[in-house]
Amino acid sequence: MEGLAKKLVQSITSRDYLETRHNTVEDDGLIGLINLMSNVLKHNPPFKNSKACEDFLCQVFDYLFALPNPRKRHVPKCKSRLSRSSAYDLLVEMVKGSPENYRLLHEKLLSQHQPGNFNINGMNESERKAYNPRSFCRVYTMDHQPLNTGEQKDMAEFFIDLVSKLEEMTPELKKLVKTLFCGVINMRNLYESLDEVTVKDTLEGDNMYTCSQCGKKVRAEKRACFKKLPHILCFNTMRYTFNMVTMTKEKVNTHFSFPLRLNMAGYMEKNLLPQHYQEDKEKLQKKMADEEKNSEEAEDSKIENRRDVGGMSSSDKKSEVKEEKEEEPETSGCDEHHEYDLIGVTVHTGTADGGHYYSFIRDRSLPGGDKWFLFNDAEVKPFDPDQIAAECFGGEMTSKTYDSVTDKFMDFSFEKTNSAYMLFYEWCGRGAYTTIKKEEPNHSANVPVQNPLPSFELSKELEDWIWRDNMHFLRDKNIFEHTYFHFMWQVCGHVPQTLPNFGTDITEMAAKLSTSFFVETFIHAKEKPTMVQWVELLTKQFNSSQAACEWFLDHMATHDCWPVRVLVRCPNQMVRQMFHRLCIHVIQRLRHTHAPLYLKPIQDGPDAEINPKTIGEQSCITRFIKMLLSLLEHGAKAHLKHLTEYFAFLYDYGKMGEEEGQFLIAVGAISAMVNFYLGQKMQEHVEVVSEEEEEEEEEEEDVISLPTDKTKPASLEKMIALVAVLVEKSRGEDHRLGLLPGDLNAVAGG
């Protein structure tokens, strides 16, 4: 077994990275080796408790959680669902019965669940399937107005506005946009509409043309045609029209077909107006020849008057100038060859008043470029181009419907509401595809590669941001999955019981990991079917370890992110209730030893003056309560709708015993809550909220401000009840109120 274990370690660590992140291919060999290693470790060979096993554990952990970067794009080794599940099982077997391995794994897992660890060619570099444009919508304006994301915008209008803004940003972008797009053409049908646009119109009779040279009315022919084509053609299918009878905007759902390959040769000036084209061409050639002649004469003059530098002769300089001119890029390809391939379709589904946009886009980065994808908000998946007609052409569709009168199935026709709204074609003329020799790791092959588009490199700052976003996203993706949750359940609940000398120190370690995972990760998952089981596990661990209870409260008293995130900001009431009960349970577990410390201040010496602000600093319970009370002045007002459990917790704590009530009175809890209710502290503190927190709040639920009317929000009922309880607890033996001056003024004068 020992020899087999070492041989398996060597085979697993030396195996190449075969699994890919997208369109994952499972490495059956790796999965088999990992499963075999798990079975070998069940027999507890000496290797399991060796230093080599600890090193192997670190490697397996990296096979699961290593994050890619520009230099190591292939990590982690385990990407498929089966290989990751097998690796999780292997980690569990490695730590069972091995305290050293457990401590090592505990340290690594705990670092993954620290506060702040959870949370585009950009999108080619990004690991996300989709990019959230919220930050873009915040800063983008149309007609000098911010975008209203709840209102449907016309896609063609937005596209034209965006392209126009790009042109105005920099000269380089202006040149790029002009090269790629030139403009947008509104169309009602493709080939037929192109024929209609370029049809010859004779001007005669009352509509005769006034000659610009002789000033007389003459018979003439008018025709529109394309003089020059861009690299990318964009067509708007004009699916909206205005009904002059009903005076409303309507969507046109009629059938509209378009080809996968478009030939624009028949609509060019060269073919429609050959004589005019030839005359313009001769004029342009003559103009260019004159400009070149003048440029050469000017350059000769400069060379004669300039001193030679570095021994370069005048003839050498002239040849260098000529070479520079010859190296200028050729831009007339689209003018000579007029075939275009369809590369994208934007579809609108719905009516003229509302609906939804999504796109079909061809991946041109792959050889051949014939793979299509559907981009529908956050959903990105492969698409069969043979279905373009069914998905994009619009028109009518027929279905069978049962007619109870005739007892027959009848054909029922109705218009599709989904149809192409914008089309994108890319030039594919002569030379668009060339054969080059492409180097691969193990072989070389001749593959067709399309000529690259005009280059537009990412800035270093944007590239770094994308990779930082990749790491956050992949870290979340690795831990927000059912197999990882099951793995954590075993590590936190089952594995500690298998360790020799299982005691309070192991229980404390397990409780720390369980709590960090539960608060930082589990409660943020969309599905939480095992929440009750996790709370029961935490309760059991806290019951077994007083040190774990003290760590829990002390951690929250020092770092307020957990109570703020759960008790104040969390929109899920069930999560807030569970956390409230857990905190109350921990305090009850510690109360018998900590209650005498509630009202004890910190003194430097027996005769030193007592500072009232240090009351409660000797107990982790009261430090936690003071931190919670401070939240009333620091941002809690913006989340009033979620504060029911926050005040319910303080209420339950205040009713727990006499010591708790007297402590709340001593630290001014009454005046703090009354001032919060009256809103006197609203302008004294400006909360700084990060963009991530702001986006999270917007996604979860809208925040509300403290109401100014006399109505009482439901979330404040417990707060008012707590104030009443504390006022009663302040009465002395003579039944007179013993409130602090600030509390008395808040209650009586407020």
Automatic annotation (TrEMBL):
Residues 280-324 have a biased composition (Basic and acidic residues). InterPro entries: DUF3517 (IPR021905), Papain-like_cys_pep_sf (IPR038765), Peptidase_C19 (IPR050164), Peptidase_C19_UCH (IPR001394), USP (IPR028889), USP_CS (IPR018200). Pfam families: DUF3517, UCH. PROSITE patterns: USP_2, USP_3. Residues 45-428 form the USP domain. GO terms for biological process: protein deubiquitination. GO terms for molecular function: cysteine-type deubiquitinase activity. Residues 280-338, 689-708 are annotated as: Disordered. Residues 689-703 have a biased composition (Acidic residues). One of its GO terms (cellular component) is nucleus. Belongs to the peptidase C19 family. This is USP domain-containing protein. It comes from Ladona fulva (Scarce chaser dragonfly).
